[in-house]
Amino acid sequence: MNTKKWRLFFFFPAVFIAQISCSGGAQEKPEINISAGDIRMIARSVPDLLLYFSSRSPKDWNYAYEKLMEIKKMKDLRQIMPALISGEMDGLLPVAIQENSSKAAKARERLVFLGKVYKLLSKFDSRNPEDWTDARKSLATLGDEAVQMTVLALISNFKYAQNPMLWERARNELTAIGVPALKPLLAAVASQKVDDVTMEQCITVMILMGEPAQNQLLLIYKEGNAEMHKTLAKALRCGFTSEHTDLLIKLAGHADWIVRGEAINSMGAMRMRAFAPILLKALADSDSYVQRTSAKALMELKEPGAVKPLILLLGTTRDYETRNAAVLALTTITKTNFGTDFDKWMQWFETSPYNNENEK
């Protein structure tokens, strides 16, 4: 059986397909053919089996226990469903089938809670955005722990969904959750095992949250590494507001050229003339990537004050791509084209309206 096909689909309960039903009573026993190895059917049944522990009948408890134990023995399933069939449940299941025990009653109560949460988390596989919102709101009624499980499930979508549309939905729901999501988001960014997509999406969520997440963004800047800073600079293109201005300016002066380049890139993407002085300064940066990025940003702004610095850049750089970027910016701003001929550009500039000396 090719389990790799379903590995991303079932790794976390956030991406299960299931019909949502969280009533307190026992559910109709799902048909599970363990011998057939139908992983999808088995995965869909686990939350239902957990809800069996809401029944008053020991027969239902034992039925669920036996089925879950069978599932636990499946090696392939253990690899793709660790969140459901290991950890806490290992200790709860043997206790939950005992009768006339307060400890067993608490274990059953806990399993039912997990069943309800996992059942609702399965809605995050729906193609309907309203299902996602309904699930988030319903999970919030189950308490703070359910909210934290919701946050972790949504964060897991960034890594396993492999779909920008689902990333956007997860961002929207995390933004709606707000402050309770900040700690897990920051933890995900700081994790040594974090992938690039998850880091960028988590930082983007914090940017979209606005003022409540300002301290977390500053913490990333103060204590994060260059990779985090680069991702932060890139993510600021989405949801940027005036309160992020100082942070972006600091990133534009970063010691690492790749961070400076991403910050300059973000400034260019926003097309805000207020950033022109920083972009002009970046034309004289020691790194050619930053110079090229700045030239492109100034071209987007059609900044007249960039004409002379761009010509000077053309005369000093030996980098082919940077020279081309300078020419493209000059041509776009001035509607004139002398190619890479520095002398002709300088001669033209002396009598051009872009030379402020001509106005004196």
Overall pLDDT score = 86
Helix content: 55-70%
Structural class based on helices, strands and sheet pairing: mainly alpha
Q: What gyration radius follows from the Cα positions, in whole Å?
A: 28 Å
Number of DSSP strands?
0
Q: Into how many domains do the coordinates divide? A: 3
Describe what you observe in this structure:
This protein is mainly alpha-helical and 360 residues long. It has three domains: 1-125, no CATH class; 127-224; 239-360, Leucine-rich Repeat Variant, CATH 1.25.10. Helices cover 66% and strands 0% of the residues. The chain is built from 21 helices and no strands. Helix 16 (257-270) packs parallel to helix 18 (288-301). It is elongated and about 95 Å long. Residues 1-27 have low confidence and may be disordered.
Structural key phrases:
360 residues, mainly alpha, Leucine-rich Repeat Variant, 21 helices, 66% helix, disordered N terminus
Short description:
The protein is mainly α and 360 residues long.
